Amino acid sequence: MRLRNALKPLRRFECSISTQIQPESNLGDNEQSGSKQPIEGKDTQKIKKPKKSFNSINTLEQLAQPDQLNRPALLNLMESDKPLSYSTFPLNYMNSPLKDIPIPCLCNGLEYVVKTRGLITRDTLGSIVKQDVSDFYKDLPQPEEIDSEIIGEYKPPSKDELLLSIGKKHKSQYLLATSTSIPIMSHIDYFITGFRSPLFNRLSYEYTNEPLRYIISLRKPTTSFATVVSSEPLMIAIDSDEGFLEASNLIFLKMGGYIEHMITQNQQDFNRKFLLKNKPYRLPTDKARPEYHSFLKAGKMVLRSQIDAGIMDNKIIKKIEVKTRAITPQRYDAINYDQYFDYKLFKDIGLYESYEREYYDLIRGSFNKYLHQMTIGGMAGVIVAYHNTKEVFGFEYFDRWHLEKRVYGSQEFAGVCFRAELALMQEVFDYIFGHEDLKKVGEVVKIGCFASYFENCLIIMVERIDDVANYKQKLKGSIINPKFNDIMDYYERSKIKPNVSKYTVTVNRKLNGVNMPNNMSIFYEPKDHLEYSYNIYRKGKVDYKEYMQFLHEAYKGMYKNVENEYSGSWR
């Protein structure tokens, strides 16, 4: 009963669909709640009813008459879409220039999991590789037992001197990391593919009536900070916005940080370096291990990617992404995670206590992100460790092509979308930062991004922040302040009147020369030809209530979405 209660949000938030291409009802979440939004790409002011139909208007002089359309709408109609030249968008993969920092190697026989390309339970792995790994992964240390100083600290792009030097060397204008680029790229991806869902074929019949689309936390607005880090030449770094970080999720984040080290170090070395009780016995060389990064030069952008692990394959190092995955009921009821230690993975298929359930949730919530990380970092695949914060149950390896077929249906379409996302993201940055006139070092704007299904556009919110240090400090203080229950509380109590501009991005798509209808998912086949054209509009200043609703849903995306205007509005 406790497990079923934990999984109730899955059914409460989602509307199931029986097949990949079955159309849903015309009523979405915001239509059910009674909220109405203007359609972007057209003028948001009231348009006078024309005396003649558009079919009878033949000249620009007729269009320009006051009784036909107002001037902003006329400008929108007159401005033609620009072609998005994604196929020639330049990509250049670069290894770290720091030769003394090696890529960590998989340990404890886990290279066998990569070579077999499948699921291996903890006990089976120990029996195959003839190593005592069962005890190592059966009793996971808890965060309070770990010396966090030995793990190392994350550097946001704006604070990464190596990234800055690489950007200057390659005359780049925008600096990003995977964690700061993927949320934006994901929304662009959902938009340009017609809000396409991943593929759920070949799951057991028990999942027929389960939701077959992305989880709501992926379908909510995302926010980040853009900081000018150099004026000559102009360089802007994109940092993550943590927002209201739920304390209940910290257990998974903390454990994920050091379980990754358990995958790339043997038991003896890990216990000596990371356990607080063994601090007196450490060697002089037992220090925080520098992270290895690779870099992708994409147009005017440089994207940084952390490489977690690697194995030798025909004298070539195969880069591997390492992920940890808490079990289903703990993820859905994180605040009570310690009540699910009796939940174990011991079945191959089924709705509960099975590896198939974890795989189903990976499709809905993680494969899109994993695939972007691997593509940016030039990685071959990802190894996932399933655990319940007390023990690891098993390991599973997925090749990149496996995720490409699940998310996009083919490797070819995955490549098309990746280049198109990068190309459009660069165009958006050029447009909005040019309009915001960012030039001085230290200038900061907050960027919000959301792919709107109902308005058929990409919505960009840009808030100018005069004192970013004070802003972030007060925002973090509001997280632990019991009087602050929402982002609006921070703005109200701080008496801040945000200066926010709204931009919209529209895209037209042609598949094999045929115009694709709005919001229709693209099913791309090899040798197809897909053309994109786009336009970006500055819509003006944003109403305070609308912006607060946008931020509320960006920070509180896992809550009930009956009254949401943004989150969960995809098919």
List the SSEs and their pairings.
Layout: H1 2-13, H2 29-32, H3 60-63, H4 71-78, E1 82-83, E2 91-94, H5 111-116, E3 119-121, H6 122-129, H7 134-138, H8 161-169, E4 174-177, H9 178-192, E5 222-231, E6 234-240, H10 250-264, H11 267-274, E7 293-298, E8 301-306, E9 309-313, E10 316-326, H12 328-332, H13 355-365, H14 367-377, E11 381-387, E12 392-399, H15 400-407, H16 411-436, E13 444-452, E14 457-465, H17 468-480, H18 487-493, E15 499-511, E16 514-515, E17 530-541, H19 544-555
Parallel strand pairs: 4-6, 4-8, 10-11
Antiparallel strand pairs: 1-17, 2-7, 3-12, 5-6, 5-13, 7-8, 9-10, 11-12, 13-14, 14-15, 15-16, 15-17
Helix pairs in contact: 9-14, 9-16, 14-15
What does this structure look like?
It is built from 19 helices and 17 strands. With 571 residues, it is of the alpha+beta class. The chain has one domain. Strands 1, 2, 4, 5, 6, 7, 8, 13, 14, 15, 16 and 17 form a twelve-stranded mixed sheet that branches. The protein has a five-stranded mixed sheet with strand order 3-12-11-10-9. A hairpin with a 2-residue loop joins strand 15 and strand 16. Helix 9 crosses helix 16 and helix 14 packs across helix 15. The longest helix is centred in the C-terminal third of the chain and has 26 residues.
